[in-house]
Every structure is written in structure tokens, then in C-alpha cells.
Amino acid sequence: MSDKLTRSIVRSLQDHKLDRRTFLKLGGISGAGFVLASALPNTTNAADNPSLVGSVDLNAYVSVGEDGKIVILSGTPEMGQGIKTSLPMIVAEEMGANWDDVTVVQTSIVDTDKYGKQGTGGSYTVNANFNLMRQMGATARDMFLSAGALSMELPKQELKAENSVVFHPSSGQSRTFRELVAIAYKQPVPAIEDLVFKGRQEYRIIGTAKSQVDSLEIVTGLGDFGIDTRVPGMLYGAYVKSPSVGGKLISANIEEIRREPGIIDAYLIKGNGEPRELMDGVGIVGTSTWAVFKAKEKVRARWDETLASRDSWTGFKKYAESIDSSTGDREVVSRGEVDQVFSDDSNSVIDSFYEFPYVSHMCLEPMNCTAHFKPGTNGSKDHLEVWLPTQNGPRFQTVAEKLYGLSKAQLTINIKRMGGSFGRRTSFEYACEAIELSKRSGKPVNLTWSREDSIKHDYFRVGGFQKLRAAINADNQVVGWEEHAICVEQKGKLAIGSGFRDGAFPLSNFPTARGTMTLTEMNTLVGPWRAPWSNTHAFVTQCFIHEIAVATGRDHAELLLEMLGEPRWLEEGNIRTMNTGRSADVIRLATEKAGWGREMPAGRGLGLSFYFCHAAHIAEVAEVSVDENKKLTVHKVTVAVDVGPIVNMSGALNQVQGSVIDGLSTMVGQKITMENGIIEQTNFHQYPVLRIAAAPDVEVHFIQSDNEPTGLGEPGLPPLAPAVANAIFAATGERVRKMPLVEEGFSV
Amino acid sequence: MSIIKLRVNQENFELEVTDDMPLLWALRDVIGLTGTKYGCGIGQCGACTVHVNGNPVRSCLMTAADAEGQEITTIEGLAAGGELDILQQVWIDKDVAQCGYCQAGQIMSAAALLASNKKPSDEDIDSAMSGNYCRCGTYIRVREAIHSASQFYDASREATS
Q: Can you tell me the ipTM of this complex?
């Protein structure tokens, strides 16, 4: 990226739609290693070439055209996390490609045998694919080096590849990839164990800032979002479900709905009772999204609510507040003599109670899927094509098999760019609803949820409550730590995102610590939401550590460093565990950069927090002022992050800035409540997203340690709420123990 | 249902719509211009922002019938003559987008701002862009991109004066 204004031509978009038949395929993975296949018109059919037997059907991540243009496939879905740019950057790096020669194309099929993992989530997509991408690139480079050696009659080991050129440093001779491509594809495929990867000091692409590969499509309105799918003969669809989850459809005014303007047909649909697959509903197809949205409002359905949710947020809150004990009945972590330190009269005890609400995903693109079910005829099998915004295409294959008996061969899955997901697009009910409408209407159907549907039928971030206490000795040191989370149980299990896990700081490392839970049943749907459980656990624990610092008159940063203990991995060799040395480094860097400890004017304060999740060590310092009307201004958030080497500096910055703003947005004004099973918020007027004026400056410092690279889609969010809450205390002396802030009288 | 005539991106369209159909859905589902996005349908999020006679309008709140006889510009029409608008180019260079879904609306609001205010302050930007949500939190780069575009507009104005 540069600030130099280089105007592109919109028509060049057409040039990006490459005719893949003119490309050589290079690279691919199989048990046997890498192969390449030729699709050049003038070359031998790859299947006929003895050295290439079977290669045509093998997956290819890299193709190079006769014109030297390079196509790198993106096998994982893009949802704004930047993976469609960062993974191909790794391939291009190892290949020695010039990034300007690269076009990235989403894989047109879901096939994990060919492409490896094709899901994304947990901020692990970079880490999970890093070596595979390096192998893809290094294989292609090796074949170009072989081609260069032949072409220039020079020893291969003396050649290098950079900027799409193979060159001989000592003589200055060189050949471009374009000149070599016809030879390169005939070269032997190196064995994986023979591949040599670049050292970090040799990187020319990894670590630089690249604009997203789809930027041009996004800014011209030609983006590839699922909701924009248009297929010949397509109808638009909508689906009405029980207002409280679990209701069974008895009847509905189908005939009346069919007479509404623009409506083609309406159906009563029986589900399988699995909310992530297909629930009972009234399906409607029509000539426009507007027509089916309007008709949906006219639906009068009778629901058998015997088994439907009766959840009540106020009931949950009353129950949680009635619990006295500091210890719950389900133990997650217990280390050291916890009871002893808390009953020791020479120690003092500090305790606290925190509350956090259910929140919604609020992907700006509502849930949608386009499906075309084609029944088999004359012995041919049924076929289903879907245009599906999803984080996990392979999992959809399982669902299609289970519900419709469709094998992988009977499925065409077009993975669409997601207009946000944050964990939401990991279930398939919107896909199943579209399939049902296509089966009944015989047409392709683009089913789109309204904003109201997307809230009402969300899989929320679960709300909850947490008690904490700490034992403090005469030297003002923390000698005991205890957490008790009041959690949600569903079908006998801890609900997704509820409570905490044993790897959570400080339960994970503190020598005398106990973490327990008390579970209560709630049926409201919940699911993964950006940094599941960490996004609430960071708030309660990192605020509480600040409470301890205040109560003991100690510096917050110093107390945090003391609680981390000696520099060490909690589990040697496992990068998904915390390293207390990396933790200390980010705390020191964030506080230094933010000017921690400086004098602040009245009404203004700094707040610190640290958290470890998703293999990321992050510390954040928020600078906040609060006026006499409790209007909050977050001036700046200073972030220090260690996720190892950064792949795309622009994307990494975007993820951290976005996580901070999303975290603030959530903590300020967002809360989902339910009574008698019904979600009480319907649209953005009752569930506001932070607007631009309230967005703080976000200064990000990366410690690019030599550890494996890991992802940034989630870990920037959890530390934000405690940093801001601690800064509010520093500015005002008011302790925030509940989210959202608007319910505590604050505004932005 | 009535037949209406719309002028969108300097092209004329004749379409049959219900009287209550918002311009948003006429653009997306009838004309087939899907760059304008649906986000909330109640004018809160700004994803559906288009220009009507140069003014930024939430196309989910205006009926297609009411847009008859007016000059409508969507994100697809911003690149006049096939050349990107400076804002679009800056948006690419600054890598503003994350998921990208709100960005058409952001750019249309920004274009309307710069059309009337070539040198907006941070406050001007906050005010003009206050109707556009970004769930991914790209606001910092939205601000930077508008400032950057305003400099280029400035430069091109000086070059032609």
C-alpha cells in the first residue's frame, strides 16, 4: 500500500476474473507430496504424462499463467479477519513471487482432502495453515529454481527467487517466472522433507502491509457477499419461527399469505428440533426480499409452546444474586491450600461480584443462504448447490448428509464472503431453511433474515455473574485467589462461552487458586461470540485485580507482574498456553508507551488490563475522561501484543483496532434480555452499535517474537472492557462491576 | 403495483413495484444493483446509503415511488466513466475495510460530505458519518481515508486552478 494515488479502472475487475484454463497448475498436497498439472493448450495432457499421473485431480494452491500472472487459492472463508489476504501472502513469500503479480481466488469447492482445513475460527487459522502455506510456496519456488538452472545452465543451489524472478546473484543472470513457467511445470516435485523455508530476515512480503485482496470489489459494490447471490430463476425467501425457541408449529394462515403481493407460495415446514439445523416454521417464497418480509409480518401462526423456552433474564439475575457461597459445586481448577489462606486470620479478604449481559452478534450482513435443490431424474442423483456464507464449509457437508442424505459428490458449496461473523456463522439453520424452500418451490431461493430475525434467533454471547475473592497477606501480596461463576447449562452441559476454563489467567498460573461454577438451565440459544468466555472472564478478573491494587495501595502494573511470577511457559512447548515472560513484556511495553503513572487532570484516568487467550499475550491501557454528567470519552487505547511474527501488518492493525472498538461498543450499550423466552430487543434502536464519534485512537505495538505466528481476530477484545472500567475508576472513583455502561448511567 | 421510472447512475429504468417498496429493495432485487446493502431497514445503520440528487439518503426509508424523477447514485455509479473515485482509491490504499459490508454506505456518506466540504475537520467527519455503523470497528481508518481523500481533492483542485 502506498499513499501514492494510482487510479485503477473499474473495468480492470473483469481482468481479475481469470480464465483458469489458461493457467498452469503448480503445487498441491497429497500424501505423496507435491505434484503439478498442466492445463496449457499446447502441452501434453497431464493425465497422459507418466510423471504427472493422477495429478490433475489433486489440489493446487498455486497456478502460474503463461503471462506470468500467479493465482493463489484461498481455501478458508473470509469474514473480515483478513485470512484471504494473509494466507496467500505466506505462499507468495516462500514462492519468491512479486505480490503485484498475485491474484487470490476463493477455492470453488470444499474438499478437505485436497485443501486441508477449510474452516476458520478461534484465531487459529493463520497458525493452523502456516506450514501448509509455506510448503505450497516453497514447492513452487523449488520448481522455478529447477527451471532456472536448466534455462541458464547454472547450478540450482546458486539460484534465488524473488519478485517473480529467478536470479544468480554472483553473475547477475536472471529469468522471470514468466520466461520459466513452461519449463517449471515439468520439473520434479520436491519432497516435503526436502523443502527449505526462508528465514525471517529474508522476508519481503510477510510483515508488510497489504490491502485486502478484495478491496477493489468492496469499494465498488461488486463484493462477493452471500446476500448478493443472484441465480437465474431465483426466488426470495423468508422463514418464520417460534418467537421463543423450541415452539412447535400447529397451524398458520398459509392461504392468506399466498395472496399477499409478490408472494409465490408459502409452506408449513416441520423441523428436526435442532436449532442449529431446522426448526418448525412458515416458509415463504416471493419475487423480492421486500415482498417476503412484508408477508412475514402477516403470518399468524399457532405454536405449541410446551417445550419452548421460558427463560427470564431477571429470574437468572435473582438466582445469581441469591447465591452466597464463594465456592460453586462444579470445580474447574483447584491448586494449593485455598481454604487455609482464606481462613487465616492474618490475611485480609477482598471480594466482589460482577455481572455481564447476553449480547448479540450483530453481523451487519444478516443471516442468509441461497440454495438450489435439483431432484434427480432418470437415475441421476439429487444435487444441492448452496451459496453459503459460513465459517465452516466442511461441517455443512456433514449436516447435508445427515438431513438430506446427500454425499459430498451431490453437493456444490460456494463459500461466500461474510459480512461479519464473529462466531455466528457456525450453525446451518439459515442454510436448511433455504434448502427447504428450494425443495418445495423447485427454484433456487435466496433466503434472507431480517435484522429482527437476526437478533431474535441469534446464538447469543451468554450472560452471567461472577463472584471473586482474594486473600491478602500483611505485605499486601495476593496469597489466595478464588472465582465462582454462575453459569448457564444447556442439555446437561456447560453452555458455549459460559464461565471460564482452567487455562484462564490468573487461575492458570496462580499457586493458590480455585475456580468453580454453579450451573443453572437457560434455553436461550448461545454460541461462540468473539473470544468466547474470555470476553467476559477478562472483564471480571482484570477489574478485580485492579480492585485489589486499589485496596492494597499498590501499583496495578506491579501487582500484575508479581501475580505472573517467574518467566515460564505454563506448558513447555505448547504455544496455546500462557508464557508469563511474554505476558510481562506486553504489560511493560503497553504501560511504557501509554505513559503509565503520569499525573492526570481531574476527571481523567488511565486503566490497565492484561489477558491471555487464543495464544495471544495482550495488554491494553485506556485513557478516559468522564464529565459531571457521566459522559465518557475514551481518548486513546494503547495496546501491546505478542502473537509472534505478523503476517500482514495492515490486517493485524485492523484486527486490533477493530477489536478495541468492538469491545467498547459492546461494553457501552449492548444488552440482550429475555422474558418468558422472548428476546426483548428487536433492532438497532434498542441495541446500539458505537458510532464513529466515540471511536478512540488506538495505538498498537507488536512484539514480533520468534514464536509461531497466531491470529488476532479475537484476542484484542477481552482486555478492552476491564481497561476502560479501570480507567473510569481512576478518573472518578466509581467502580464499574456491570456491563453495559449505559445502565450505570454513563453515556458516550 | 405500479410502473415507475427511476434514473439510477445516469441510466433509466422502468420497473413494477408495490407502492411501499423501499428504494433499497428496488435497487437490489428489481434492478439488480446489489452494492447497496440491507442492514436494519429502520435507518439506523447506514449500510443502504445512496445519493438522491447528491444528498445522502437511507434507501431503506425512502420508497422507490418517491425516488421517481430524481437523480439516484449508488456505489456502482460512483466510479464515473469507469475510473475510481478518489475516495474509492484511498479506501483501497488505506485498507479501510474489514468484512466490507458497511463500506459502500460509508463511502457514499463520505462522498456526500466531501462534495460539500472539501476540507472536513474530525468533527465534521464525525457528524457526517454518524449515521453509518461499522460492526468491525473500522472508524479510525474511515477518518484517515476521508482526510487523505480531501488532500487529494485539494491537490487536484490546485492543479486545475
A: 0.97
